[in-house]
Amino acid sequence: MTLQSSYGLELRRNRTLPQLRDLLSSESLNAKKLIQPIFVSESLKEREEMQSLPGVYRDSKESVLAQIEFDLKSGVKHFLLFLVPGTKSNDSIPKSFYESAIGGIKQRFPEIFLWLDTCLCSLTTHGHCGLLGKKGEIDNASSVVRLSDIALCYAQSGADGISPSDMMDGRVASHRKILDQNGFAHVPVMSYSTKFKSNFYGPFREAAESAPGHGDRSSYQIDVRNREDSILSSIRDAQEGADLLMVKPGITSIDLIQPIRDKTGLPVGAYQVSGEYASLAMLAQNGFCKFEDGLLETWNVFSRAGASYLITYAARRGKEIFS
Ligand code: PBG
């Protein structure tokens, strides 16, 4: 299918596939509105369970296929894939790993909607989400070029949707442009549009091998104390052509979902991040609550707050928990 990209607002992008229509319907949250994150690591021979995230695995290109087969049977249609290359590089993209991992999944399961997270933190030697300049500062311009090249490689390999999580300025516009110019005008951009610097990403960074080697992410992720920046950041991504917006971490951002919806008119989802899932798992492991009850409580809160969709490590248990 080809879409004209010259009209500005491409509303048909979110209408074309049944999986997207289910994800973005105005119903309250339900199992069809959940997205399951998955990790594929190039250096793994066998899958390993994440200690801090019970029920979440780091997979090899091969072992992830059995996981997706299982998840499909549980009713999951949307996956958010994080690719962790075996070799770090600040100069090049591990194209063949990306192509084979994505291609392998989509050839086997054409019916899933596969989102790909674009960021540099799993790839760079320093673990920052952008490239560094001569003085060690984030170089926004070259970062956006590299990120867009990765987005194109993902789309060419079979990604259904692209999800930039790096928080560089201009990445959404540049993703949209490179996709449109290369025949991928139908591929939606789900932007991590309001992403805070947070203490809740710890378990993820272990899974994605993406902790910054020095410094922190406060020059590009939003300061939780700044409400104006957090809303402006989503408005800006909407103006640059994002199809779906997101707040992250979920539970610390629920007050922003409705204002962002009101100001942009776009669907706004939430990412229940690794630290949120791990906190509930730890409460449950210590006998303080039932894991499923804790999850359902938070999901009901996201629904009440107006989240259109939810990214959660427990998506594969969505049907069971909502029933
Ligand atoms: C990559 C990225 C992060 C998460 C999603 N994409 C980590 C970070 O910004 O350090 C966090 C997800 C989670 O904690 O579950 N930039």
Automatic annotation (TrEMBL):
Catalytic activity, as annotated:
2 5-aminolevulinate = porphobilinogen + 2 H2O + H(+)
Write down the superkingdom of origin: Bacteria
Which GO terms of the molecular function aspect are on file? porphobilinogen synthase activity; zinc ion binding
User: Which parts of the sequence bind 5-aminolevulinate 2?
Assistant: 274, 313
Provide a GO CC annotation, any one.
cytosol
Instruction: Report residues binding Zn(2+).
Output: 119, 121, 129
Q: Which GO terms describe its biological process?
A: protoporphyrinogen IX biosynthetic process
Q: Which SMART domains match?
A: ALAD (SM01004)
Entry keyword set? Heme biosynthesis, Lyase, Metal-binding, Porphyrin biosynthesis, Zinc
One Pfam family per UniProt? ALAD
Pathway noted in the entry: Porphyrin-containing compound metabolism; protoporphyrin-IX biosynthesis; coproporphyrinogen-III from 5-aminolevulinate: step 1/4
Catalytic residues (UniProt) = 195 (schiff-base intermediate with substrate), 248 (schiff-base intermediate with substrate)
Which residues of this UniProt protein bind 5-aminolevulinate 1? Answer: 205, 217
List the InterPro entries: ALAD (IPR001731), Aldolase_TIM (IPR013785)
Can the keyword Metal-binding be found in this entry's annotation? yes
Give the EC number(s) under which this enzyme is classified: 4.2.1.24
Q: Which family does it belong to?
A: Belongs to the ALAD family.
Could you tell me what this protein is called? Delta-aminolevulinic acid dehydratase
Q: Which organism is it from?
A: Leptospira perolatii
